[in-house]
């Protein structure tokens, strides 16, 4: 029933490089239950068998097959109004998460829609379960958060909405990195120009010196 929505978003995430071949996971809330991608599923090639239905509050026979990130999805559903969650590993956002405590977009759309994106964790977070409370708490006020060195968790009413925040964050992060690289190039050019200017008086003196 939901497979087409999962397939569409999963394929986009994979083709845009927001997840690796077997990385990331997604879920939809269904009342007291949820549907989540299978442990180790390939988001770019999802089938019916890759969707696992289990409880938000309880375990059942299907639970062990669910994504290893199930506990985080459950905590988010328990504490927010989210109806859908996308967890991805966007590379530019990951790179910035290693250096920033929050990501502040420079572009107009990012500023308007994301404002600022919290980065959670003191160092690289190897187990998201160590920061579950912070992730769920931050997602009460933000569309998306970054877990340092691990990935993004985005929420929405539909998978497509959570996908939108993931894609937008990655685009904003690419711009931040590009702008910083250009800034460094400009600084480099300026200092070269300054060096030229500094060299001028000496050259001029040389020209004026009698033979
Ligand atoms: Zn992950």
CATH C-level class: Alpha Beta
Distance between the termini: 91 Å
Radius of gyration equals: 23 Å
**Mean of residue pLDDT values:** 91
- What is the total tally of β strands? 8
Question: Looking at the chains present, what oligomeric state does this protein adopt?
Answer: single chain
CATH topology: L-fuculose-1-phosphate Aldolase
Distinct helical segment count: 6
Instruction: Note the run of SSEs as H and E.
Output: HEEEHEHEHEHEEH
Structural class: alpha+beta
CATH superfamily: Class II aldolase/adducin N-terminal domain
Write the layout of secondary structure elements.
Blueprint (H helix, E strand, L loop, with lengths): L2 H13 L9 E6 L2 E5 L13 E5 L14 H10 L4 E5 L2 H7 L4 E2 L4 H6 L3 E4 L11 H7 L5 E4 L3 E6 L2 H50 L3
Parallel strand pairs: 6-7
Antiparallel strand pairs: 1-2, 1-4, 2-3, 4-8, 5-6, 7-8
The chain binds zinc ion.
Description:
By secondary structure, this protein is of the alpha+beta class. It has one domain: Class II aldolase/adducin N-terminal domain (L-fuculose-1-phosphate Aldolase). The protein is 44% helix and 18% strand. The chain is built from six helices and eight strands; from the N terminus they run αβββαβαβαβαββα. It has helices at 3-15, 70-79, 91-97, 108-113, 132-138, 159-208; strands at 25-30, 33-37, 51-55, 84-88, 102-103, 117-120, 144-147, 151-156. Strands 3-2-1-4-8-7-6-5 form an eight-stranded mixed β-sheet, with helices on both faces. α1 runs parallel beside α6 (159-208) and α2 crosses α5 (132-138). The model has no long low-confidence stretch (mean pLDDT 91).
């Amino acid at each position: 029933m939901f497979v087409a929505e999962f397939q569409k978003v999963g394929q986009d995430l994979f083709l845009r490089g927001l997840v690796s071949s077997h990385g990331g996971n997604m879920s939809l809330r269904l009342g007291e239950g949820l549907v989540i991608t299978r442990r180790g599923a390939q988001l770019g090639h999802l089938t019916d068998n890759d969707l696992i239905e289990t409880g938000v509050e309880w375990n059942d026979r299907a639970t062990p097959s669910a994504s290893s990130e199930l506990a985080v999805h459950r905590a988010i559903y328990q504490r927010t109004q989210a109806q859908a969650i996308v967890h991805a590993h966007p590379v530019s956002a990951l790179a910035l998460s290693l250096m920033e405590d929050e990501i502040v977009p420079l572009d107009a759309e990012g500023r308007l829609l994301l404002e600022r994106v919290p980065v959670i964790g003191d160092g690289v977070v190897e187990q998201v379960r160590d920061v579950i409370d912070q992730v769920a708490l931050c997602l009460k006020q933000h569309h998306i958060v970054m877990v340092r060195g691990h990935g993004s968790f985005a929420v929405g009413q539909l998978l497509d909405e959570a996908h939108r925040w993931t894609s937008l964050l990655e685009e904003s992060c690419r711009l931040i990195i590009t702008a910083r690289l250009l800034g460094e190039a400009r600084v480099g050019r300026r200092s070269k120009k300054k060096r030229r200017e500094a060299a001028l008086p000496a050259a001029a003196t040389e020209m004026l010196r009698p033979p």
